[in-house]
Structures are given as structure tokens and as C-alpha cells.
Amino acid sequence: MHDKTMIFSISDNKDESIRTILTTVYKALEEKGYNPINQIVGYILSEDPTYITTHKNARSLIRKIDRDDLLEVLLNHYLQN
């Protein structure tokens, strides 16, 4: 058995999942000729899924992320870098 306490963080898994989804959505928007930043910001502010293209299932993917979790991850990343 292990003598030391192990730390398990579900937050790291959540952050990575959000990063993967956001990257996929960004690329899908870019491929369709949209400005990905403007479209994602519009989605975050309004929670209107029509800001996100259905290309590559991007709209369904982004709706899997809780908007509060998305904002938290983005803010943490911004402040840490």
C-alpha cells in the first residue's frame, strides 16, 4: 500500500475536457469562416447556441459544458498566464 496521501483532482480532468471541446469548437468555427472568438463570446454572453456552427458537431459539444465552468476555466487560464 501507499504510505503517502494521494491527491485526486477531478478539476484537472474537467479542465482538460473543456480545453478539448473548446479547441474543437474553435477549429470548426474557423473552418466555416467565422471569427471564432467573437462567436464564442457571443455564445458565452447569451447562451444562445446559434452562435456556434453545427459543423463537426461543435454546437452539441459546447452545450455539454456548463457556462459557469467554461468561464472559470477561461479566467483561471488567463490569470495564470
Provide an overview of this structure.
The chain is mainly α and 81 residues long. The protein has one domain. It has helices spanning 10-31, 36-46, 58-62, 67-80. The chain is elongated. The N and C termini lie far apart (38 Å).
Q: SSE layout and pairings?
A:
Elements: H1 10-31, H2 36-46, H3 58-62, H4 67-80
- Report helical residue fraction: 55-70%
Unreliably modeled segments: none
Global mean pLDDT: 89
By helix and strand content, what is the structural category? Answer: mainly alpha
Integer-rounded radius of gyration: 15 Å
State the oligomer: single chain
Q: Quick one: biggest sheet?
A: none
The strand count comes to 0
Give keywords.
about 80 residues; mainly alpha; 4 helices; elongated
Task: Describe the structure in brief.
With 81 residues, this protein is mainly alpha-helical. Helices cover 64% and strands 0% of the residues. The protein has helices at 10-31, 36-46, 58-62, 67-80.
